[in-house]
Specification:
The structure is a single chain. By secondary structure, the chain is an alpha+beta fold. It has 7 helices and 6 strands. The protein has helices spanning 2-30, 69-74, 82-95, 115-134, 139-156, 163-171, 176-184, and strands at 40-46, 49-55, 57-61, 96-100, 108-112, 186-190. It has a two-stranded antiparallel ribbon. Helix 3 runs parallel beside helix 5 and helix 4 packs antiparallel against helix 5 (139-156).
Length: 192
């Protein structure tokens, strides 16, 4: 009887160890590079010119390519287009939550998840709108840039370890252009 209990305990422990090893292997080989030492190089084509683009981070995205009717109805008109408006609705849903201060009390407290990323995204939006008004940047380029920034922000909300990315945003907080370039160093793999 003792040998059966010991054998079953051994098999259970072996299963746990294999499971943990498999999870570590998957996490190290299939998740995003979280620091600048792991830079990913991919081939991209732009106007038939092949060039190497270097990415510092890579994340799997679950941001939808099409939006449901509820999201579309909530979306207000945006100068960068309807896709940006829908992405902003999703950003508010994912990042901002309201909770009761005291149960039964009608006062509510606003909680912002990952406030560094949320606030930086809002600052970039204001900056791009000003640049479009001044004529320093084309509306289409600003819309494309901000769409990518929103997609990165929506992707990162579900990631557990974003300290390196948030640290890069903090290091470049004096220059919005540098913060935009930090967002451009993120490769998004759409899972749909």
């Amino acid at each position: 009887m003792k040998t059966i209990n010991r054998l079953s305990l051994f098999i259970l422990m072996l299963g746990i160890i294999l499971n943990i090893s498999a999870q570590n292997y998957y996490a190290s080989n299939h998740r995003g590079a979280e620091n600048k030492a792991d830079i990913i190089t991919t081939k991209t084509t732009n106007d038939d010119d092949a060039k190497n683009k270097r990415y510092a981070w890579e994340f799997d995205s679950s941001v939808p390519s099409t939006f449901d009717n509820n999201t579309i109805q909530k979306a207000e008109e945006h100068e960068f287009g309807s896709k940006v408006a829908c992405l902003k609705v999703l950003m508010e849903e994912y990042y901002v939550t309201q909770e009761e201060v005291v149960p039964g009390d009608p006062m509510r407290r606003t909680i912002i998840k990952k406030p560094n990323i949320y606030n930086t995204t809002r600052k970039i939006e204001k900056h791009l709108k000003k640049e479009v008004k001044k004529g320093n940047i084309a509306l289409e380029k600003a819309a494309n840039d901000f769409t990518h920034i929103l997609e990165v922000s929506l992707t990162i909300i579900s990631e557990a370890d974003t300290e390196a990315f948030e640290g890069a945003l903090d290091q470049n907080k004096k220059s919005i252009e540098d913060q935009i370039s930090v967002f451009n160093q993120v490769k998004i793999n759409n899972i749909y």
